[in-house]
Amino acid sequence: MQVLQISLNAKVFPDILPGTFIPNAENIYCSIENAPALPSVIFERDRPKQVSGGGFSLRFETGYDWDGWLIGLRCGPTLYFPNESLDSKINFFNHMMLGGQISKVIGQHIIPAFPQWLSFSPSLGCGVSFINTEYYQRDYDTDFHQISGSAFYISTGVNFNFYFDKRFGVPYVGTELYFMPDVGGLTFMPVIQGGVRVYPFGFAALKKGSLDINTICFPETFSPDNDGQDDTLTLRLYTFSTSPVKNWEVKIFDEYKQLFMTFKGRGHPPKYIHWNGLNENGEMIQAASNYTYTFNAVNYRKLTDTCEGKFSTDIFLIRNEENIKIATATIKFDPNRATFATLTWDENNRNSLVLNKIVTALKKFPDYKISVEGHANNISNTEAEERRILIPLSKYRADVIKKMLIERGIDKDRITTVGRGGKFPIVPREKREEWWKNRRVEFILTK
User: Fold this and answer.
1) Which domains does the chain have, with CATH numbers?
2) Is 294:250 a contact under the CB 8 Å cutoff?
3) What CA–CA distance (Å, rounded) separates 395 from 421?
4) Which of 127, 203, 283, 405 is the most interior residue, by most CB within 10 Å?
C-alpha cells in the first residue's frame, strides 16, 4: 500500500524562490487602516481606574512579505473623545504610536476547512507610544492629572484577510489590543480595525497576471529501504500566482520516460511533498536508477507554467529475518547474450557505476555468503522458452557478474550463482512497456 504524506504548508503569498538572497521588490507591501477605538482603560497606583470615551485610529504600515510572514513598521495616531462619569473625567487622551509588528498568514494551506479566499493572521508588535492626556478624579479632587510623554507598548491582535483580486490589494478586518505599562500603572487600548494591504512594486505584474513555479528535491540520492538514511524524497514546490491556482500536478518518470507516479490536486500546491518511493499500485521505485519529474500548475486566468527536475536512487538494502537483499537497477547486457559488446559507452559506464556501488555494499558484510541470481523475461510465456533459453541465459549472466565482482575484490568463495529464468517477474505481462524490469540480477546475502 502506498504511504504518502503531503505537508500542506503552502501559502497565500509569493514564495521566495531558491537562490533569491536579495529581497524581491514585488514582496514589499504597504497598508493603511482606519479603526474605531474602543474606550481605553487607565489603571494607576492609589487611584481608581479611568475610562476614556471612544475614538478612532489611523495606521500606516510598510514591510516585507517573507513567505507569508508579514514583517513591518507601523505608525499612526489614536484620538479619544472626552468622557465624564461618576468616577472620572477625561478632557482628552491622544497618542501617536511608532513600532514594529510581525504576523503570520494562516489559511487553507494549514486549515483545509478554510475557503481559498480567506485567511487570518495573528500578530505581535511592540514600540513606543507618545501620549498626551488630561484628566482628574471627579469625586475625589479637582486636581488635573496630566501626562505628556512616551511609554513602551506591546500589542497583539488578529486580522482576517480576503483574497478577491490582488490587483486591488488585500482587504482585511480585525482587532488589536495595546498594553502600555509604566511606573505608575497600566493602560489598555483595544481597537477594531479594517484596512487594505497593497504591493505597489508588484502592481504592474499583478495587473498583467503571472504564474511562476519552481521546485527542488532532496536528498539528491534517494534510498527508500527503511535503513533510516535517505528513506524519504522531499519535493519543495515554489509557487507565485497573481490569481488563485486552479490545479497542479507533479509527474515522476523513470529513465525510459515511462510515467511512474503522479501527485495532483486543486487549489494552491502544497509547499512540500514527502514520498516513500511507492506508486499507486504499491510498486517500489527502481534502485540505482535516474528519474526525472515535472511540476505543472494552472491558475484561474488560464496561465500555466511548468518546470522540471531530476534525482537518482541508490542501491537498496532490504533486510528480513533470514537474509539481506541488495536491490539494484538492471545491469544491461547484449540482447539474448551474457556479453556487453554492443552497448554504448554510457551504458557500459552505468553498469560499472552500479557494480561499484554493489561492491561497496558487499564489503560492509564480509561474513555473509552472496547468491547472485539472474532473472529473465518470458516473452512467449511457454515452458520451452523457460527451460531451453531463459534459465541457461540468466545463469550465464549471473556467472559474468560473479567474475566482475571477483575482479573488484570480492572473495570468490563467498559467491554462488543461480539462473532463475522468468519464473519470478516483478512486472505483470499486461505491462509490456515495463518488461525490462524483469531482466535483472539480484544479490542475496545470507549468514
Assistant:
1) 25-205 (2.40.160.20), 214-313 (2.60.40.2550), 316-446 (3.30.1330.60)
2) yes
3) 8
4) 405
